[in-house]
Write a structure and sequence with these properties.
InterPro entries: AAA+_ATPase, ABC_Ni/Peptide_Import, ABC_transporter-like_ATP-bd, Oligopep_ABC_C, P-loop_NTPase. It comes from Microbacterium capsulatum. It is found in: Cell membrane. Belongs to the ABC transporter superfamily. The protein is of the alpha/beta class. The chain has 2 domains: about 10-225, P-loop containing nucleotide triphosphate hydrolases (Rossmann fold, 3-Layer(aba) Sandwich); about 250-345, no CATH class. Helix content is about 35%, strand content about 20%. The protein has helices at about 50-55, 85-95, 110-120, 125-140, 145-150, 160-170, 190-205, 215-225, 240-245, 250-260, 320-325, 335-345, and strands at about 10-20, 20-35, 40-45, 65-75, 75, 95, 175-180, 210-215, 225-230, 235-240, 310, 315. It has an 8-stranded mixed β-sheet with strand order 6-7-8-3-9-10-12-11, sandwiched between helices. A 4-stranded antiparallel β-sheet has the order 2-1-4-5, covered by helices on one side. The chain binds adenosine-5'-diphosphate, iron/sulfur cluster (SF4) and magnesium ion (MG). Magnesium ion (MG) binds near residues 50, 51 and 181. Adenosine-5'-diphosphate binds near residues 47, 50, 51, 62 and 279.
Length: about 350
């Protein structure tokens, strides 16, 4: 492949799932790419289509799903992969880590069997060699006494330890891309930080790219080179993470940033985003965010806004992007603004 071919390229991805005899759109024209070794964040509220994006990339959609667009891995069309090539893609090229580690282990199989199974089938490693490698991997993800852990069952491990086992299993095949779907959401804050640090270290040491999914914009900012904000199955904004936090281009991103609890601002009420998140299927005509957007005007409802390139900064799907640029983080007029001013003094 040429140097300009991204590791993963997702183009115009639209996905519909059958529900009660009709097709419901869950993703609409999703497009992005990930370069070798880089980390891209995918952020959005529940139901925005984050997991469906990952499942489409891994070709793990439910039966009856209708997909258009394309996904290329290292220049090859993932949707064209057949039997053996698809198996190799899932076993070697990409690895997945999920929010609920326990659901992806078999309660009656030991950790050691879970870890060595893929190595033995995919890499035809002899039993002893696979066990040795599994012990090394457990050690690498900071699990002490790995030989003992190999003999234990999933229920004997805490959520944090089990997620470390999942990271070890993901890294075992030396994939080039990790698809991490809210890997720390189910963990307490301290464990979350530990698991994140291990994931990042393994990623760096093995030179893997990562699609990191979270509903936590702050976490994405800390972890990802670039961040994509998804709403109702559509990409609403894409920017370098640091820039996105400083100068968001889309009102939805700004609303998410303003809804974060800020530890050092004691008295300010959180301006929660009014209304409820919508799915792609239920989204109104025009801008999907319009019913919750404090900047909405009639023209926002005229048609689905295009994803626009804003100078060098990034992309946003907002018809008012140019005129609103730089003002989105100013507090809305009203009681919240007055309280914020009060606290600032
Ligand atoms: N198996 C399924 N069949 C039909 N619809 C589904 C299925 N799984 C998820 N959905 C719907 O697809 C949309 C996106 O879901 P998902 O990607 O899981 O969101 P997220 O991960 O961002 O919370 C939601 O509206 C959800 O209800
Ligand atoms: S297009 Fe209009 S409604 Fe949609 S985000 Fe922009 S300002 Fe808000
Ligand atoms: Mg999800």
């Amino acid at each position: 492949m040429t140097a300009s071919t991204p590791l993963l390229r997702v183009e115009d991805l639209t996905v519909g799932l059958p529900v009660a005899g009709e097709l419901r759109t869950v993703l609409r024209d999703v497009a992005f790419e990930i370069e070798e070794g880089r980390t891209l964040g995918l952020v959005g509220e529940s139901g925005s289509g984050k997991s469906m994006t990952v499942r489409t990339i891994a070709r793990l959609l439910p039966d009856g799903a209708e997909v258009s667009g394309r996904v290329d891995f290292d220049g090859s069309a993932v949707f064209d992969l057949r039997a053996e090539a698809l198996r190799a893609y899932r076993a070697r090229d990409v690895a997945m880590i999920f929010q609920d580690a326990r659901a992806y282990t078999n309660p009656v199989r030991r950790i050691g069997d879970f870890l060595t199974e893929a190595m033995r089938t995919n890499e035809r490693m002899p039993k002893a060699a696979a066990a040795q490698r599994a012990v090394e991997l457990l050690d690498a993800v900071g699990i002490s006494d790995p030989e003992r852990r190999m003999r234990q069952y999933p229920h004997e491990l805490s959520g944090g330890l089990l997620q470390r086992v999942m990271i070890a299993a993901a890294v075992a095949a030396r994939p080039r891309l990790i698809l991490a779907d809210e890997p720390t959401t189910a963990l307490d804050v301290t464990t979350q930080a530990e698991v994140m640090a291990i994931l990042r270290r393994m990623q760096r040491e093995h030179g893997m790219a990562m699609l990191f999914i979270t509903h936590d914009l702050e976490l994405a900012g800390a972890v990802c080179d670039e961040t994509i904000v998804l709403y109702a199955g559509q990409v609403m904004e894409r920017q370098r993470s640091t820039q996105l936090h400083r100068d968001p281009l889309h009102p939805y991103t700004a609303a998410l940033l303003q809804a974060r609890p800020e530890i050092d601002r004691r008295a300010v009420r959180l301006p929660a985003i009014p209304g409820h998140p919508t799915t792609a299927y239920e989204a109104p005509d025009g801008c999907a965010f319009a019913p919750r957007c404090r900047f909405a005007q009639d023209r926002c409802r005229a048609g689905v806004p295009e994803l626009l390139q804003i100078g060098e900064a990034g992309q946003t799907r907002c018809v008012r992007a140019d005129e609103l640029r730089g003002t989105l983080l100013q507090p809305a007029p009203g009681p919240d603004a007055a309280i914020a001013e009060e606290v600032a003094r």
